[in-house]
Request: fold
Amino acid sequence: MKRFAVIAALVALPVLAGAPAFAATAKHAPAKKVSASAATEFENEVVRLTNAQRTSRGCGALKIDNRLVKAARGHSADMVSERFFSHTGSNGSSFVAREVAAGYPKRDAAAENIAWGYRTPKDVVTGWMNSPGHRANILNCRSIAVGVGVAYTSGGAPYWTQDFGRS
Reply:
């Protein structure tokens, strides 16, 4: 039986106050290695599935922002190469700092979801939607931009990052 563990959840008060938020999900599952082009297709499919969830609940569709993609891909790659799972980067960076380093305005950094072990875009979005913190990030109608990054361990386990923005 596959395990699902919520590592961190979004606290309601920061969402109501408009403060940046984050959430993490872990699921142990074997995965196959994929090519860089397949990884990009997976990232785009996560955006499509995320937008389907948002629009079915009255929020606007998120647009892909290449700066957020850069931040998300970088964090996923960092988690894989340094063998950790956290919103805090191996250099101590926050998701806001990573978004700013990628050129995104600090005032517009909104939230971050991370996950590992989910083999498909459908699996990771379903996992996030089943987690209160991730769900709140996805369904926050104030977010208008997104970047998704996936990186794979040598054994093929995917690490996902989804960064949200307000501009």
User: Anything to note?
Assistant: The beta strands are 4-8, 21-27, 63-64, 109-116, 145-152, 158-165.
